[in-house]
Write a structure and sequence with these properties.
A six-stranded parallel β-sheet has the order 3-2-4-1-5-6, with helices on both faces. The chain has three domains: 151 residues, P-loop containing nucleotide triphosphate hydrolases (Rossmann fold, 3-Layer(aba) Sandwich), CATH 3.40.50.300; 54 residues, Histone, subunit A; 71 residues, Crystal structure of tRNA isopentenylpyrophosphate transferase (bh2366) domain (Helix Hairpins). The protein is built from 14 helices and six strands. The two termini are 17 Å apart. With 305 residues, it is α/β, with parallel strands linked by helices. It is globular, with a radius of gyration of 20 Å. 57% of the residues lie in helices and 9% in strands.
Amino acid sequence: MTKPKLIIIGGPTGVGKTEIAIDMARRFGGEIISADSMQVYRYMDIGTAKPTEEERHLVPHHVIDVVNPDEEYNAAAFLYDAARAIEDLERRNKKSFVVGGTGLYIRILLGGLFEGPGADLQLRCLLKEKMEHFGKRYLYDELKRIDTRAARKIHPDDTVRIIRALEVYEQTGESIVSHQEKHRFSDNAYEYLKIGLMADRKTLYDKIDRRCERMIVEGLCDEVKNLLKRGYDGTLKPMKTICYKHMISHVNREIELEQALQRIARDTRHYAKRQLTWFRNDEEIKWFHPDSRDDVAAAIEHFIA
């Protein structure tokens, strides 16, 4: 059987993925599957930069508003929801555009969930003790020494993935990257084109700053107040994310609105930088400037043909 074809559009937050994805989906008769780990939550619209009602009217979106903020949602749930949406679009002869900045969701959709060897709790505890004693950099340097492939793909601050990579290598004598590649090769259910959107850093940061300002104007503060009234407090995982935690601090009169805005913009820029690091490690991505829509369209047309 012919594998379904997916057009993946990724890149850092604020670069303009939504606008281009809507344009391309309209050109090619497609619908959008969100690969954004925050847009799955109901009542969290402004702070997640969720597509507006008007944008969703132009092109239907899937895997948005799936769960309440106090409900669990993870990569396995995304894989299930996205696969169902793709099957539905295939039946209706619609093109599938997978759009978002959560690189893990995209990787899992294309390669499935790699479980690997079970957790070695004793080894994991030892690695955590080393990290507490010597610092995060010590574990990353250890990973670079024994598994350079994994070290190139993992950020030095991502201690969860560093520990898991060290654990897999210790248990199997093989890089976690090799395991993931074997798994992806055997389990890949789709043909795909990966498009990455990239602007120069100053332009990207300026766009992020403007978007954060728009969030305030559009009512982020009222959105947070509404969430708190519904009983979704700051201890919940989605409420600890960039926009919401700082706006909660403002609502609680711990910081001024201007200070909340500055912190949201600052942390969003840092997050975009981490996203770029993730996507740049993916050699399959074809990179385009957000203004090069005709070039993006040509790449999609060639892929579909």
